Amino acid sequence: MKRKVIFSLDAGGTNLVFSAIEEGNPIPETHTIPTGSKSLEEFIHKLVQGFSGLQEKLNVQPAAISFCFPGPADYAAGIIGKLENLPFFTGGTPLAKMLEHHFLVPVFINNDGDLFALGEALGGLLPEINKYSEKQYGNLLGVTLGTGFGGGIVHKGVLFSGDNSAGGEINRSFNYLNPNQSVEEVLSIRGIQRLYAELAQLDFAKAPEPKEIYELGMQKGKKGDVAREAWRQFGVVLGEMLANAVTLTDSCVVIGGGLSGAHPLFLPAAVERMNGSFVKADGNLLARMEMHAFNWEDEKCRKDFLKDDSVQLQVPNSNLTQVYYPKKKVAVGISKLGTSKAVAVGAYAYAAKQLGF
C-alpha cells in the first residue's frame, strides 16, 4: 500500500524548513535551507531543492505537498500575490502549479492562521473542550500572535476561506487603542515592544524582547508594574477584537504563536474585555457579546464553563423531553499542540480531505 505521506514547508524569515507528515503525525526528519534570496528564480530553486532534498532523505514519493505561505494570495488557485517580506513576489505568481508541474503531485497552499486553526480544531483545543463538555462544540476561531497577527475559522472540521481566500484575515481589524492603526500594530512582537517602550518612556529601539517583557511582568517592582500594564493593554486590544469576531463566528477561540506563552499576563484582560458591556441610549447596560467567554487556562473559569447548565424541557402534547442549553458559552484557550505542530496537522488534514483519505 502506498504510504500516505504529505510534504510540508515552514517558510520562515530565516530558514525554509521542509518536513513530512504521515497519517497526521510529523516525521522527525527535516531538510533546511536559508530563506534569503535575491530573486524569484533563486527562491523557487530553493523550494524545488528543499522538497527534492526531503524526498531523497526519506526515500518516499509524497501523495501531495501542503503548506502555508504568506499572503495576499488566491490560496484556492495556489497563486501568490505581492508580498512585503518577499518583495520579488510582485503579484500573480502561480506557485502551486509550478510545484505540481515539477513533482507531479497535487499541491495545496493555505494561510498559516487557517492551518493552525484547522489543526487545533481536529487535534488540539477543540477536542480537549469536547472531551470534558456535556455540550459539544464544532466551531473554532484560531489566532496567531507573533511577527504578525493572523487567524483562521473552522466550521465542523472545514476551513472557511471566503470568496477571496481572505476568510479569517483579522489582522485588518480595528485597533481599540488607536483607531488610525490596524490591530496588528499592537498584537505582534513589535506591538508589545512599543507598548512597553511607551509606558517605560524608552526609545522603541531600546525595547526588550517580548520574552524579557513577560519575565519582567512576572516579577514584583516598578519594572514589573510597567510590563504587566503593557500586557494588560495588549489583552484589552485582543479582547475587543475577539469580541467582534466571535459575535460573527459564535465559536470557541484558540490562541497560538510565539507571544501566546505570555497568556497569564494578557488572557485575563482579554476575556474580561469580551465580557464587558455597552451602554444603551436609556443608560442601561447591554452585554458586549450574546455569548459569555471563559478563560480555559484558568481552573475556576474552566469549571464554570464545564458546569452543566442544561435543562430538560417537556415537549408539549407528548411524553418527550428535549435538552436545552439556555446559557451561551465560548471557551478561550491556548494552543494544545503547539503552533508548528498544529500547522503541520492542519496541512496534512487539508490535503488528506482533498485527496479523499
Explain what the structure shows:
By secondary structure, the protein is of the alpha/beta class. It has 2 domains: 5-110, Nucleotidyltransferase, domain 5, CATH 3.30.420.40; 115-355, ATPase, nucleotide binding domain (Nucleotidyltransferase, domain 5). Helix content is 37%, strand content 25%. The chain is built from 10 helices and 18 strands. Strand 13 and strand 14 (285-287) form a beta hairpin. Helix 3 packs parallel to helix 4 (125-132). The two termini are 13 Å apart.
Highlighted features:
357 residues, Nucleotidyltransferase, domain 5, 10 helices
What would you say about this model in short?
This protein is of the alpha/beta class. It contains ten helices and 18 strands.
CATH superfamily of the largest domain: ATPase, nucleotide binding domain
CATH fold category name of the largest domain: Nucleotidyltransferase, domain 5
The coarse overall form would be globular
Q: Whole-Å distance between the termini?
A: 13 Å
Helix/strand-derived class? alpha/beta
Just give the CATH class of the largest domain: Alpha Beta
* Total beta strand runs: 18
Number of domains: 2
Number of discrete helical segments:
10
Q: How is the biggest beta sheet arranged?
A: 6 strands, mixed
Spatially, the strands of the biggest sheet line up as 11-10-9-12-18-15
What is this structure's SSE topology?
Blueprint: E1 5-11, E2 15-22, E3 25-34, H1 40-58, E4 64-68, E5 73-74, E6 79-82, E7 90-94, H2 95-103, E8 107-110, H3 112-123, H4 125-132, E9 139-145, E10 149-155, E11 158-159, H5 189-200, H6 210-217, H7 222-249, E12 252-256, H8 263-274, E13 277-279, E14 285-287, E15 292-295, H9 299-306, E16 311-314, E17 321-324, E18 329-334, H10 339-355
Parallel strand pairs: 1-4, 4-8, 9-12, 12-18, 15-18
Antiparallel strand pairs: 1-2, 2-3, 5-6, 6-7, 9-10, 10-11, 13-14, 16-17
Helix pairs in contact: 3-4, 3-10, 5-7, 6-7, 7-8
